[in-house]
Amino acid sequence: MSYSTQPIGFLGLGIMGNGMAARLVSEGIITSSRPLYVWNRSGEKCDALKEKFPEANIVKCESVKEVVEKCGVTYSMLSTPEAAAAVFNASTGTLSGVSEGKAIVDCATLAESDHQSMAKAVKVKGGVYLEAPVSGSKGPAENGSLIFLCGGSKSLFDSIENDGLNVMGKASHYLGSSVGVGTQAKLVVNSVMGTMLSAFSEGLALSQSLGLDGEKMVEVFMQGACAAPMFKLKGNKIVKEVADHGTNFPLKHAHKDMLLAKELAAKTGVEYKTNNMAESIFKRARESDLQLADLDFSAVFEQIHEDSKGSNDYSAKRQKK
Fold first, then answer.
1. pLDDT tens, 232-241?
2. Domain named 3-hydroxyisobutyrate dehydrogenase-like NAD-binding: which ranges (predicted)?
3. What does the pLDDT look like over 91-118, one tens digit per residue?
């Protein structure tokens, strides 16, 4: 089935969803004859999107069911597995609106079993399902440079690849028909990312404790073999006297993904010790009295200093924003 002329739905206009939905509008996927139906738990965010694009054909819906019923394809980008399950299973939720041919594309990072159970339920009602977790955070969502990691219906993927996914992202990968493979790929990526940021934060903390200039060390990192876009993006924010941990990817979500990857590795018998050590740091940060959980995952840097207090003067003076 082709969905290229049918209305599009979007559920969840949070840190990621708002930018993704805006891309569908700004890049011309939404037209006068092809509306975008939106829903968010806080209706004000739907209003804000409409205000941002006053001429666009954006329709605010009072229920998730209404969105799904009116649209060919409905994208869902909810913040946690608990939120995703609640919205999907509610009496006027996602599943209640599914009928023959309706397509659900869930872009959240959930457990494999979450995506699998939702896919099965959608199929029972005659719908089609694609898991499409994204690699990227707030900035990439806003500028269309996300990477979609997809599993499930190949026909649905083919239909929306250039009519949605590649407008919201810079690349879309179809990894197989078995729902769960996209989640596996995303957990591998995010566990490596969290481990990298933990190691980078430790290196910057040691550098500054030794009296080395933090900004200069970021420059050195970026000139060498271990240069990474994430280091450039986060580094100079981390090393400020009062660090900037404005939320692009919440620390609590980063920890959730690293924990899921830890469980996945244990299930498959793979040694994942480096990730597991970093996950323990993120866990302490998430549960810390420093209130880091809702900050950007770069705030793991503050936990590293908290763990080091008393060993040097710099750690004791460290501040956070």
1. 999 999 999 8
2. 180-301
3. 999 999 999 999 999 999 999 999 999 9
CB burial of 206-225 (b: ≥16 within 10 Å; e: otherwise) equals ebbbeeeebeebbeebeeee
- pLDDT on residue 2: 79
Q: Please identify which of the residues 45, 65, 102, 186 carries the catalytic annotation.
A: 186
Reading the block at residue 100, the tokens are 């023959």
Contacts of 12 (CB under 8 A, 6+ apart): 39, 40, 76, 77, 78, 79, 83, 87, 108
Same domain, 163 and 206: no
The answer to whether residue 2 is domain-embedded is no
Asked about 138 being catalytic, the answer comes back as no
Measured CA distances, 37 to 70, 104, 206, 230, 232 (Å)? 8, 14, 50, 34, 37
pLDDT of residue 318: 52
Same domain, 42 and 127: yes
> Are 48 and 118 found together in one domain?
yes
| Predicted structure pTM score | 0.91
**Domain extent for 254:** 184-317
Same domain, yes or no: 92 and 132: yes
